[in-house]
Amino acid sequence: MLVYPSAIDLSTAHVHYLSRELATRRREIGTRWRRLTVGRQALLALAHLRCGDTYAQLAAGFGIGIATVFRYIREAIEVLAAQAPTLDEAMMTARTKAYVILDGTVLSIDRIAADRPYYSGKKRHHGMNVQVLTDPFGRLLWASPGLPGATHDLTAAREHGIIDALAGVGLKCWADKACRGAARNVRVPFKGRRLKRWQRRHNTTHAKIRCVGEQAMATLKSWRLLRKLRCSTNRITNIVKAVLTLHLASA
């Protein structure tokens, strides 16, 4: 396999943050020696998350075995996922905002046609349903664990406790039509073709507010691994949390 120099479109703050967390992890478990330093392990994990490089590509580039790459990346993701904010912590941050924006996405996964629970009829591909909360400026606050792609957005929001958490702090939330009937504090657009003029104006204003939340989805999917996940569905939640932690650490 040919090896060539490459670059990752991230700042050094990401490497420094992950290096510190990995160094703490190594001290906790009493690691004495490894093939890669914490800085190189951090770079390895970032290349996988940001660029979506495969284990074989990373093994060739860093001069280590594929099994070692897998262990190093899994450890880095677990370390980062443990630092991700919980929903309660996100609510504490969100209480200082005027409102939040709730949106859902279906992350594409490599599944076969027989895996019906993971098939999203709306997106017409297999995936994992992830709900995201953002502030009024489109900055990520929290990302939910992944659920099978066939899960409806409102069902996912209720299962994660998002609706109850928003009601508990009395926070207004803007969401799409999928969350119709969620709660009084969850604002959704009017549905139907024959709408009155004031309803159409409401929908226009609502769309302008919600479109800011799409920036968060673009930020999430700028980590190219999330554009097409080919790992076990059991690992996707930790991957999403790891990406969220890195984003918040550099914000």
TrEMBL record:
Pfam families: DDE_Tnp_4, HTH_Tnp_4. InterPro entries: HARBI1_dom, Transposase_HTH_dom. It comes from the Bacteria. Its cofactor is a divalent metal cation. GO terms for molecular function: metal ion binding. Keywords: Metal-binding. Residues 102-247 form the DDE Tnp4 domain. Transmembrane segments: none annotated. Residues 35-85 form the Transposase Helix-turn-helix domain. This is Transposase family protein.
